[in-house]
Specification:
Elements: H1 2-5, H2 16-40, H3 65-74, H4 82-95, H5 105-111, H6 117-127, H7 134-146, H8 156-168
Helix pairs in contact: 2-4, 2-6, 5-6, 7-8
């Protein structure tokens, strides 16, 4: 999923038989993230839902029979559901222009957060956590190089100081 939301790779290195399953999983995760975000938001910060075209604010007028049929034909298309909107956003993300391999994915998502608002939540979830623990492994490796069979009797304070010096010099 992390490489899927990385704009440098997208679905490039994902086997083609797994792309559809990954798309479905991404849509489900985005729906969950958006639902969690809206439920965690305090009531005074929630955006109130306004009826379309101010229907509740204006009293209905008397309509002629011809205007009734005109409106019926004009309003037959329903707005896309939340899932359809996320799927459309995902497909436009996958079809968008490729980026250079040295592009910072976090900066790219910051710049394109307006274009892909739902997917940016998924990118934040997967790209903000480092994938490796290499800094801690470097320290363990350094201490392993210091404490050898010949230097096994070093006291813990001395080992701490030697590791500190080795890492900071």
């Amino acid at each position: 999923m992390a490489s899927f939301v990385d704009p440098r790779f997208r679905a490039t290195y994902i086997p083609s038989e797994k792309v559809d399953a990954l798309k479905h999983r991404a849509v489900l995760e985005v729906e969950t993230l958006l639902a969690d975000q809206s439920s965690c938001q305090p009531p005074h910060l929630r955006v109130p839902t306004v009826p379309a075209d101010g229907e509740a604010a204006v009293a209905p007028k008397a309509k002629t029979l011809a205007s009734f049929f005109k409106q019926r034909t004009a309003t037959t298309t329903a707005p896309p559901t939340k899932r359809e909107a996320i799927e459309n956003e995902l497909s436009s993300y996958l079809q968008s222009a490729s980026v250079e391999s040295d592009t910072d994915p976090l900066k790219w998502w910051k710049d394109h957060e307006v274009v892909f608002p739902a997917l940016s939540h998924l990118a934040k979830k997967y790209l903000l956590v480092p994938a490796t623990s290499s800094p801690s492994e470097r320290v363990f490796s350094c201490s392993g190089n210091i404490v050898t069979c010949h230097r096994a009797s070093l006291k813990p304070d001395a080992v701490d100081r030697l590791v500190f010096l080795a890492q900071n010099l």
